[in-house]
């Protein structure tokens, strides 16, 4: 079958090869260097592997040192599927190739691929960028859930089931910075809580500073909320299913501290997310904590810079010891 656009996931039994069009948090398109100058990352789907849950995560890491947050197929040619990726450069314990990415606007990357003798990949960049740029909000949330929920549920450690690629010690080193913004006893809501590990950890880390925190969580994925409830049965009634952009507790309660990531919503809704959290979730006099997991060498700015760019005043900020993550806070 000739190259053609697709608007739904392909039958996984038919996918043998993958080619990716990666995008970075600043919107730049990325390719990798090769003998002809550059090419798109791609590879084979191994026997017994799922193209989305296995190959679409493994290939970008090993070929491009890139960690996808979302994967969206947009074209196919026989057993070859083209998908765009939304994510960033990766530095961590998983096997990966820290190749220097070649980045630029999509038109420029497509032109360079044409000059390198890869018109098929140039076409894929143009089509991939069109699909990426035109994605609506409902599709954004669907992409997040369809990849992250099953991938996290496969995790064999609490860290992996929270989307983290390291052990307990590395988790502490790269996430504990957010308790620097917790300055009193109170309640803590983690928006996008996955299996509840961060809310649980914040309670422990705050206690080390003599503070008593009661954890809560909300997540878009019902399977992850059920996992949080089963992991933490004494708090099972404190975890809910909901979308960060508009969720409110049914009983109208609000929280002393609310934590979230801006990539829970499309970039153009980030300011709306902060406004909603401040208006509906943070109690009067409480604090909103916003984190960014930018990675070493990643292109995503620190949390404080992102929040300021959205027009919100930052009261304070903190960063992980290795610079891979940061948290900024603002008061309600």
TrEMBL record:
Keyword flag Nucleus: no
Domain of life from the UniProt record: Bacteria
GO molecular function ontology, one term from the record: 2-polyprenyl-6-hydroxyphenol methylase activity
CDD domains tied to this protein: AdoMet_MTases
Keyword GTP-binding: no
Keywords annotated in UniProt: Methyltransferase, Transferase
Positions in coiled-coil regions: none
Protein EC: 2.1.1.222, 2.1.1.64
Name recorded for this polypeptide: Class I SAM-dependent methyltransferase
């Amino acid at each position: 079958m000739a190259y053609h656009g697709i608007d739904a996931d392909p039958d996984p039994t038919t996918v043998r090869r993958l080619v990716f069009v990666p995008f970075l948090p600043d919107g730049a398109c990325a390719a990798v260097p090769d003998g002809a100058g550059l090419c798109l990352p791609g590879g084979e789907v191994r026997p017994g592997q799922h193209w989305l849950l296995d190959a679409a995560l493994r290939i970008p890491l090993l070929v491009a040192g890139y960690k996808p947050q979302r994967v969206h197929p947009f074209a196919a040619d026989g057993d070859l599927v083209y998908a765009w990726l939304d994510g960033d450069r990766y530095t961590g314990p998983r096997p990966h190739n820290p190749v220097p990415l070649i980045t630029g606007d999509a038109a420029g990357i497509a032109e360079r691929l044409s000059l390198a003798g890869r018109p098929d990949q140039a076409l894929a960049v143009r089509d991939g960028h069109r699909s990426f740029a035109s994605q609506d909000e409902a599709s954004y949330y669907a992409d997040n859930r369809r990849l992250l929920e099953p991938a996290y549920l496969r995790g064999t450690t609490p860290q992996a089931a929270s989307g983290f690629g390291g052990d307990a010690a590395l988790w502490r080193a790269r996430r504990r910075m957010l308790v620097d913004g917790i300055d009193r006893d109170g309640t803590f809501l983690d928006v996008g809580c996955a299996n509840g590990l961060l809310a649980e950890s914040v309670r422990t880390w705050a206690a080390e500073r003599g503070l008593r925190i009661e954890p809560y969580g909300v997540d878009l994925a019902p399977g992850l909320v059920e996992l949080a409830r089963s992991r933490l049965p004494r708090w099972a009634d404190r975890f809910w299913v909901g979308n960060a952009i508009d969720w409110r507790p049914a009983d109208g309660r609000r929280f002393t501290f609310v934590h979230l990531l801006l990539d829970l919503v499309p970039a153009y809704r980030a300011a709306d997310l902060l406004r909603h959290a401040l208006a509906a979730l943070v109690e009067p006099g409480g604090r909103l904590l916003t984190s960014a997991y930018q990675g070493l060498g990643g292109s995503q700015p620190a949390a404080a810079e992102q929040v300021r760019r959205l027009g919100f005043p930052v009261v304070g900020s903190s960063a992980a010891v290795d610079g891979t993550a940061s948290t900024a806070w603002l008061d309600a």
